[in-house]
Design a protein that fits this description.
The protein is 46% helix and 14% strand. It is an alpha/beta fold and 373 residues long. The strands form 3 sheets. The chain has a 4-stranded mixed sheet, with helices on both faces. Strands 5-6 form a two-stranded antiparallel sheet. The chain is globular and about 75 Å long.
Length: 373
């Protein structure tokens, strides 16, 4: 590429319509396919109207429909339609909890929001790229960081007359699961992301933070659950999407999810360099983990394992350096065979087995460049 072409590219703007067409395909490629033909008549009518071209009549109909659904007594509504797009709602979890309380069991909650990808597309279609990157950086700090930090949250809302928070798609989906819903459909309607969720349980009472250090519930020795410390590599609330991702994404080589959209770009770098696992030394010092051992698993992953291997796993502590890096298995069955081989050897000769595995793992990582994805 010549200098003139290079400068021309940096002075160009993205085509907004083309970007949105691309996002409409990529952001929903692992979304569930919900058959609206089998849905309640009111829900089918709502989706049909929402898909019609934008007009004052359409907006009025949707506003009236939302007011009607929220007027139903708690626990009796079959459908609740969000009164505004979620970006404009300050206390979003409180609002989603209210929707959960309003619905009967298996009732439907329908909402829409502007994704962070759409927000980025708007910026890059409005400015030349060289300026857009600068604008996007400060916009990210203002709309994505400031509303979530205790020191800046009140200042942000004081300066922002109308709330315009920016949400990544995984965060909104995770919040829905956190507040007791299962997602049954995702799609772009025009250029706004529409989600249909179904009430399945009461909202979670677990505390949630946005900090860089997170605690993940994992299964340890004797089947007891403990908190594993890691640096955040996923969007907020992504941990509540574990089952949803498993149901709609295939497992990749190495037993991880394929196309896991919950992982941020910064998170991919942390994982590649293992920096995200440094806080796990806290678990090592607390005696919850050991240096060499099988990975600490979430309940969802643990349930995928064979019963005999589950029983073997809980006989010992999980470790920081897993036998994965000795055998580099690719399928879930191979992963189980690798762990079973290690655990059986460890239960007979603990020190000798960990000593042998430690040097094999270190050698494979440092001199053979073996990595997990």
């Amino acid at each position: 590429m010549g200098i003139r072409a290079y400068l021309s590219d940096w002075a160009s703007r993205d085509n907004y319509d083309e970007v949105m067409e691309y996002l409409a395909v990529t952001e929903t490629q692992h979304a569930p396919r919900f058959e609206f033909d089998d849905a309640p008549q009111e829900l089918r009518e709502l989706i049909t109207v929402a898909e019609t071209p934008r007009s004052p009549e359409r907006s009025q109909w949707l506003n009236d429909f939302a007011k009607k659904t929220w007027a139903v007594p708690d626990g009796e509504a079959e459908i609740v339609f969000a009164e505004d797009h979620l970006n404009a709602i300050r206390h979003l979890n409180r609002y989603l909890r209210s929707a959960n309380a309003k619905l009967k069991q298996d009732g439907y909650f329908v909402c829409a929001f502007d994704t962070s990808q759409k927000h980025r597309a708007q910026i890059f279609s409005r400015y030349p790229k060289i300026i857009a990157y600068i604008v996007y950086f400060f916009d990210f700090l203002w709309h994505r960081v400031c509303p979530k930090l205790g020191l800046t949250r009140h200042f942000y809302y004081y300066c922002t007359r109308k709330v315009r928070k920016v949400f990544p798609r995984p965060e909104v989906l995770g919040r829905l699961y956190y507040c007791g819903f299962d997602v049954v459909s995702e799609q772009y309607i025009h250029d706004r992301y529409c989600v249909v969720a179904q009430k399945k349980r009461q909202p979670s009472q677990d505390p949630h933070t946005y900090g860089p250090l997170i605690k993940l519930r994992r299964i340890g020795k004797d089947g007891k659950k403990f908190n594993v410390f890691k640096f955040r590599t996923m969007y907020a609330y992504s941990e509540y999407l574990q089952t949803y991702i498993y149901e709609n994404n295939d497992l990749d080589i190495g037993g991880k999810f394929r196309d896991d959209y919950r992982v941020t770009e910064w998170g991919r770098y942390l994982r590649k360099t293992w920096l995200d696992e440094l806080p796990m030394f806290i678990n090592l010092l607390k005696g919850q983990m050991k240096l060499v051992g099988v990975r600490p698993l979430s309940q969802q992953y643990f349930d995928l394992y064979d019963k005999d291997l589950q029983e073997l796993r809980i006989k010992t502590k999980p470790g920081l350096l897993p036998p994965f890096y000795v055998d580099m298995p690719e399928t879930l069955e191979e992963i189980q065979d690798s762990e079973r081989c290690y655990l059986e050897a460890y239960l007979e000769h603990p020190f000798r087995t960990d000593w042998k595995y430690f040097w094999k793992i270190v050698g494979n990582i440092l001199f053979r460049g073996k990595r997990s994805k």
